[in-house]
């Protein structure tokens, strides 16, 4: 996290951890030709349509919807609650780095990666692509600061369902500090559309442990409301309610078939990447077993 450049930070994590290809259950799934565009100098000649050139004496490049093994969209929460941090960096910083790490890894494997950032509404959207310059564009979008207020998962998740018509993977990175009923409704939209969903719930150690020692004024980052608390008196009630929220979230994800991974913002990114790869491998085994049974 001490590396200032986000792309270099992600590259350092990936190159220090993994070399080789991962297996995807969608291998060769969606290589679909969509349209032509005129050839311009510098284009890859492998995508020239020579038959069309022979008929028209003009050169055109084939454009494809997806030429890769996997189509993955990263959904990154940049609401104001994500700006909290007790470790020298915020949850938003950690989440952006996690998203950048996954994007870098997927790009090296030839997979198409998209991005949606949101707070109370959708902020940035890049469709899943594997093209020259796309990864850099994604990194620039991730570097934009968190400026929103409230977290509303329903609107951005409903929007991603509308935008992404073909099945793929959705990786949601958020603290998920929202009412469970709203979370269940929003997450159900994704699974109902046939997407494979993985959630990385990023929480600060202070949120997990509530290890404050002295009385202080606490500010709700999303509403601006101030509360004066004596930690020793508030800790038991906080831990009880927070634990109940986490348990309800785990049950919701289990019921929807969503992999839920709780991550402390001090957790090494290499191990989070391992969790991602293990989920991919386990998912592939399930799909292969089902195929064998049929």
Automatic annotation (TrEMBL):
What's the protein here called? Answer: DUF58 domain-containing protein
Which InterPro entries does the UniProt entry name for this protein? DUF58, vWFA_dom_sf
Q: Which residues form the DUF58 domain?
A: 35-245
Origin: domain of life: Bacteria
Q: What Gene3D superfamilies does this protein's entry cite?
A: von Willebrand factor, type A domain
Q: What is the lineage of its organism?
A: Bacteria, Pseudomonadati, Verrucomicrobiota, Spartobacteria, Chthoniobacterales
**Pfam families hit by this protein:** DUF58
């Amino acid at each position: 996290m001490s590396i200032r450049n986000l792309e270099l930070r992600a590259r350092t994590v990936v190159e220090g951890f993994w070399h080789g290809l991962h297996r995807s259950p969608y291998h060769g799934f969606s290589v679909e030709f969509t349209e032509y565009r005129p050839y311009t100098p510098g284009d890859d000649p492998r995508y020239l349509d020579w038959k069309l050139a022979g008929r028209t004496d003009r050169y055109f490049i084939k454009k494809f919807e997806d030429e890769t093994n996997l189509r993955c969209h990263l959904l990154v929460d940049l609401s104001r609650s994500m700006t909290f941090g007790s470790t020298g960096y915020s949850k938003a910083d950690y989440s952006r780095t996690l998203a950048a790490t996954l994007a870098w890894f997927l790009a090296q494997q030839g997979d198409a990666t998209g991005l949606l950032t949101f707070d109370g509404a959708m902020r940035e959207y890049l469709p899943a692509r594997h093209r020259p310059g796309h990864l850099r564009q994604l990194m620039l979008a991730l570097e934009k600061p968190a400026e929103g207020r409230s977290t509303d998962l329903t609107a951005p998740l409903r929007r991603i369902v509308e935008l992404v018509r073909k099945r793929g993977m959705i990786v949601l990175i958020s603290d998920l500090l929202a009412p469970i009923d709203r979370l269940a409704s929003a997450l159900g939209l994704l699974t109902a559309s046939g997407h494979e969903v993985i959630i990385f719930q990023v929480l600060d150690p202070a949120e997990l442990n509530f290890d404050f020692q002295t009385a202080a004024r606490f500010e709700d980052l999303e509403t601006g409301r101030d509360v004066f608390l004596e930690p020793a008196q508030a800790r038991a009630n906080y831990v009880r309610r927070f634990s109940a929220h986490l348990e309800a979230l785990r049950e919701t994800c289990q019921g929807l078939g969503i992999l839920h991974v709780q991550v402390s913002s001090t957790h090494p990114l290499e191990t989070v990447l391992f969790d991602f790869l293990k989920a991919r491998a386990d998912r592939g085994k399930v799909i292969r077993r089902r195929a064998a049974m049929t």
